[in-house]
């Protein structure tokens, strides 16, 4: 390799590292240092007073993980290992909660099971259900995290060699016994790994605990809601205490990732060379009808009922009105969607989401190229690109608040000076979005680039093209579908994001997430329901676009 090419690689690595270290790694380091520096008057007395928030966080997260595991394990077997009718439709519906913000599912269950005005309580009697409190939060978080267990189980079941079941059958085991004693134990580590990710997701969640915990009697506070309260309190003392809690929340990330890694290693399945992976669906026989009815009932209650409750709330004159046709109206839809405040928030959200999507694709593609160029250091580049995705949004937002709360002045060569003023601007929100979802661009680009033969770019170089020209003409057109998928995923995540938006959005610059949060928490649940329906419609359109891109990519291959 020529000296010029070698220096170009290192220059590219440096250009990629500067924004990553400055805007993603540096703020978290500042947060950790700030949290480690709290002592003295704050001391152990204050820290002990926050034990309730930590206990509630662990309680809610454990409950959500157990619920997702208990429901996800049998559903994985039924959907991906049996001849259950309508498996494809059920799979789409059960994975829908992963694409819709958990806050919206919380709104749906609040409309259903609010102690006084909830639809179920009005039908079955006041007080039958109470969604407020730790149990309700764990229930909604378990619903939102169910796809993590379901998809982990699906991937594991596809890897298991069907010959193992056949061997068990030859030895005299019944079909059910063969399934439970061979396939299920091999898939169990992946299912547990999915449950660990649900635990981490629930621990870092903010919207649902705020919606169902702060208004409970007594209030159920978790680490994320306490961090939010301390940030609102303001001042050095409040931010310092919030830093300590955020550091504790951050420590859960490596523990969860370590547990996932250990479970993943224990769940590896080695196949003999040349062995086919096709498996015959397990026949349900006479139980087929009952199993279909049971899965359909769970799907209706778990997924469709809360969405229907949100739609009904958006059509009622007021939340809590009689369940009658005369109480239905479209006034909220026209009033909310055409309101200048909503239009401004929509425009700002779409602009920020599009900007973040472009940054995610550009920086993610650069990370993939650097991984291929620096084979030994490639793991480090991948780690830097992916790790913010596992960090709770509350922690990222607080870290950016601390790092850029004051203007930063830079002087180059004693001649050129410039000031970086990000506090109270939408730019901080854009940085948070891009840092959090950079993994989407990096993962998609890396996987797509791995399927492209390097000889394509080399052939362009031999024909006289420069390195940049060769990359633009040969690999980039083939990477386009993966980049489109990364952009759409990042766009949807940013346009519907709530946690970081609530902490970082400047006054007078609302986005859709903060508008939804304010309407539901303080003002008008019916108007919030209209926005939630718009969120769901946006997600469905985005998922349809992703499916179309996936089909076209498959046809090209």
UniProtKB/TrEMBL annotation:
Gene3D superfamilies for this protein: MetI-like
Membrane-crossing residue ranges in chain numbering: 12-33, 60-80, 92-111, 131-157, 178-203, 242-264, 285-312, 350-371, 383-404, 416-435, 482-506, 526-547
Span of domain ABC transmembrane type-1: 54-262, 346-546
Topological type in the membrane: Multi-pass membrane protein
Entry annotated with the keyword Cell membrane: yes
Keyword Manganese recorded: no
Keyword annotations: Cell inner membrane, Cell membrane, Membrane, Transmembrane, Transmembrane helix, Transport
Compartment(s) where it occurs, according to its Swiss-Prot or TrEMBL record: Cell inner membrane; Cell membrane
One Pfam match: BPD_transp_1
Family: Belongs to the binding-protein-dependent transport system permease family.
Protein name (record): Iron ABC transporter permease
Species: Pyxidicoccus parkwayensis
